[in-house]
Amino acid sequence: MKNNWWTSETIYQIYPKSFRDSNNDGIGDIQGIISKLDYLENLGIGGIWMSPIFKSPQADNGYDISDYEDIDPIFGNMDDFDELISKAKEKNIKIILDLVLSHTSDEHPWFIEALKGEDNKYHDYFIWRKGEKDNLPNGAISAFGGSAWEYVESLNKYYFHEFHTKQPSLNWENPDMRKNLYAMINRWIKKGVAGFRLDVIDTVAKNVDKGNMVVYPDVYKYIDELSQETFQRYNAMSVGEVWSANYDNAPIWANLDGSKLSMIFTLQHMILDQGENKFDIKNLNVPKFREIFSKWQSNLYSKAWQANVLENHDVPRIVSRWGNDTKYHDESAKMFANIQLSLMGTPFIYQGQEIGMTNAYWNDIDNYDDIESLNYYRESIEKGMEKDEIMKNIKTKSRDNARTPMQWNDSKYAGFSNVKPWLNINENYLNINVESQLKDKNSILNYYKQMIELRKKYEVFIDGKFEILFDEYDKIFAFKRLNDNEEIIIINNFSEVNIEVNGIEAFKDYEIIIHNYDSLGNFLRPYEALIFYRKCRL
Ligand code: TEU
Ligand code: CA
After folding, report:
1. Position in ligand 1 atom list of the atom nearest CA 143
2. Closest residue by CA, ligand 1 atom 3
3. Which of 44, 198, 270, 361 is the most buried (most CB within 10 A)?
């Protein structure tokens, strides 16, 4: 396990549309990423996961792929991609692609062929049910709202789409289809791609007749085959987005013998502030958050590997979501770094997280681009919900909060582009940007940088056993990591009040290797975070 590069490296997620625009069309691109490799090298990351850059009509920002083997012209071309691979390699940075294997775009040639009828070999690459117009096969709901079935008049049939109507779901029961996907993956590996993030990979085994459930244990058959036919052959990294995984079955998804995936994301905490509808607002229960991580840490120890994540392109910004993005912006942003990068597992940080970027909080629906938010708006208006209420939910939950362009400096358009970007810049770019934080040794950016360094310096961050501490305090997330030689004690005050923690004196002889306040007081201040270290004498 230790020989795998991904266990000690931190991975950085780029949302290509919003990272850096090199040719001033308002959309981020591959040359933009190349121009920021020095920045990423300096941050210390070991890999870049790029959200999809393949050819796509962009109905779901690239998660609707019309050609898996080519680059979308908005991002550049194959020469740009090859240049990225080789320039990143010079800096020892690995490139990780985002594979969307559960669906294609309706503009993919397979689907265009499939529409020609049952005799066409590609018809069975997708999921169909017979049915009259307005008589849906069943009540299955798409993740973006509305029915998951779309009627095709010429065939008098419905196709299944778990997400947008422009994202028909692939039929994984078809072996020919699977073989095609594997060959495509292997071609990317041969080009120099080091790993893959697997979009909603558990949904490849689904029962669309039973409310679209993920089918266990059948899903493991597909995962084993996929892994054997592709990643295992070349020791490529794979990280699964598996919403149905929990701390009990996670060790099966990503066991250490390499027969499944390299790791899966912990995602259970991502829905803690979700009501029945994704957009309903619910407060975070900190003990529950702590419990989820503790269980993953203990259940996976020496059995499996995981990827720890607090932000990505689908969720609001962490400081706005569960921290404080005004009064304690700096402290709370650093506390999240302190937690995330101290856990067992590969940390995935999302562009802008390292400078504490915040939610956009736009009041006007016209500012939003994401189909999920737009669908929610339309459906809620139809249901008669108050506009203010709808906008409050969108401001808090919209995926666009995380998709605003990266804030590089305080120039117009934040150094992202010289023209108005595809999605507005967050107005706070004058205060929150890379350039100013590079100059300040106490910045959030430098805290992330130090944490990334610490993970490389002390093995205990990688292999230390996890033990929860001080869990009698509801708002303290503290834990120990211990291996044969070293011990770290990670302390976090997950609240805005001072908390006196009995027993913390026990660590007074330890070295403090990182801290978001100047010195230790008699109690923990709002969002205070630190790490004690010592070498064990056995
Ligand atoms: O997201 C998977 C997924 O289940 C989403 O519905 C997620 O729960 C939602 O975005 C939360 O609001 C992946 C991608 O990360 C996402 O960007 C895509 O839209 C989706 O798959 C479809 O490919
Ligand atoms: Ca561009």
Report:
1. 6
2. 200
3. 198
Q: Exposed (0-12), middle (13-18) or buried (19+): which is 225, by Cβ within 10 Å? A: middle
CB neighbours of residue 349 within 10 Å? 26
Q: What is the pLDDT of residues 41-56, one digit of tens each?
A: 999 999 999 999 999 9
Q: Is the CB of 399 under 6 A from ligand 1?
A: yes
Question: Does residue 199 have its Cβ closer than 6 Å to ligand 1?
Answer: yes
pLDDT on residue 77: 98
- The pTM assigned to this predicted structure is 0.97
Helices (H), 440-499: 444-457, 460-463
pLDDT at 210: 87
Catalytic residues: 199, 241
Q: What is the DSSP string of 166-199?
A: TSPBB-TT-HHHHHHHHHHHHHHHHHT--EEEET
Q: Is the CB of residue 372 below 6 angstroms from any atom belonging to ligand 1? A: yes
**Span between the terminal Cα atoms of the chain, in Å:** 25
Q: How far is CA 311 from the centre of its chain?
A: 6
Q: Which residues of the chain have pLDDT under 70?
A: 1-2, 537-538
The verdict on the CB of residue 314 being under 6 Å from ligand 1 is: yes
According to the model, what pLDDT value does residue 3 have? 77
Averaged pLDDT score across all residues of the chain? 97
Q: From residue 94, how far is each of 90, 124, 229, 272 by CA, in Å? A: 10, 36, 21, 32
Distance CA 516, CA 508 (A): 17
